[in-house]
Design brief:
By secondary structure, the protein is an alpha/beta fold. The chain is about 30% helix and about 25% strand. It has eleven helices and 18 strands. The radius of gyration is 23 Å and the shape is elongated.
């Protein structure tokens, strides 16, 4: 095995370690690290939670003196800045006496980008950048998107029948998919920062939008965001109870209702209008500034349509149940007016299919990304 293939193999392990932190590290990225000395792995670790030690420190602690003269593999550029909860990693790496550092990708965070690598090189270490870079970008695609655009990475999730319906004409939608699919969807919620719905979904289903069907000792509950241009939201809606609720509205909302919601501990964002409704781009930009790096849109059809047509969706996840509903008046996944020409359809690329219980999960990326 050539030296570069060895590097790739050790980095593959570091990437698998990084993925163990999924759903627990925000606002930090997922990072894995491996220390190799004299052809043997002597330390490994990953970033387990925000505020906790970084991956490099876990790996170097495990290696101890055996790190001397060895190589550190890390999936993201080590940090060198001090304006955060944990100490910078670059000085600890230098102190460990490793000789070489292999980095999968630069950190897109402008406070870090390039500085950690420069600090290590100035200290006399050999630093190689770019080993399995594309895979590292994929592991942290939500973090990278948030850092580069200021907006959260948006996943649009839907559950529909084989003929594309998400509810009957009367709004009955529980439950289109199997329990296995619902458990999978709750795991998605546990890995996101905010779940977003339109007010129509709240009026129809009165959802809680919390994580419940996940077997984990510690579950991080996402923010629950309700898009409601005129504040039709009932003050007794279950989504408002238990804190962590955000309502996105406009100046068309009655000021008294805004104050009542704020008095209940709800964060109310008064945002610009677009086509007579809340500007979703403005909403996402505000959420990004609040530290929300990943949003899961759970409907309904009008919110889905607005997000897709404004080019704000990074990924689509569709659970398809093997049943047919029929009816021109049944609710479809994407609302609004149909485009006049088929050429206006939004193509999905990088399609993946898999079974979840009795349902099919289709995953793809809108082609405007």
């Amino acid at each position: 095995m050539s030296h570069s293939r060895l590097d790739a193999a050790y980095m593959a392990l570091a990437l698998r370690l990084a993925a163990r932190g999924r759903g627990r590290t925000h606002p930090n990225p997922m990072v894995g690290a491996v220390v190799v000395s004299k052809g043997r792995i002597v330390g490994q670790g990953y970033h387990r939670r925000a505020g906790g030690p970084h991956a490099e420190l876990y790996a170097l602690r495990a290696a101890g003196r055996r790190a001397r003269g060895g190589t550190l593999y890390v999936t993201l550029e080590p940090c060198s800045h001090t304006d955060k909860r944990t100490p910078p990693c670059a000085p600890a790496i230098v102190a460990s006496k490793v000789r070489r550092v292999v980095v999968a990708m630069r950190d897109p965070n402008p406070r870090v980008s390039g500085r950690g690598i420069t600090a290590l090189r100035r200290s006399g270490l050999t630093v190689t950048v770019g080993c399995r870079r594309e895979e590292a970008e994929h592991v942290n695609e939500a973090y990278c998107h948030w850092m580069r655009t200021g907006r959260p990475y948006v996943v649009l999730k839907g559950a529909m029948t084989l003929d594309g319906k998400i509810a009957t004409a009367d709004g009955d939608s529980q439950w289109i998919t199997s329990e296995a699919a619902r458990r999978h969807a709750h795991r998605l919620r546990s890995e996101t920062d905010a779940v977003m719905v339109g007010v129509g979904t709240v009026l129809r289903d009165d959802p809680r939008l919390t994580v419940r069907l996940v077997k984990r000792s510690t579950v991080r509950q996402p923010w629950r965001v309700i898009v409601d241009s005129t504040l039709r939201l009932p003050m007794t809606a279950r989504v408002l109870s238990g804190g962590r609720a955000i309502v996105a509205t406009t100046a068309k909302a009655p000021p008294a209702r805004i104050e009542r919601l704020r008095a209940q501990g709800v964060i109310v964002l008064v945002l610009p209008l677009q086509d007579g409704r809340v500007s979703l781009r403005a909403c996402l930009e505000r959420l990004g500034r609040m530290g929300v790096g990943r949003v899961l849109i759970e409907g309904g059809s009008e919110l889905n349509a607005a997000a897709l047509r404004n080019g704000l969706v990074n990924r689509v996840l569709l659970y398809v149940a093997p049943r047919l509903l029929g009816g021109q008046d049944a609710k479809s996944l994407i609302g609004g007016a149909s485009p006049k020409r088929l050429a206006a359809a939004i193509p999905l690329r990088h399609i993946h299919l898999r079974r979840v219980g009795s349902d099919l999960l289709i995953e793809g990326r809108p082609s405007h990304h």
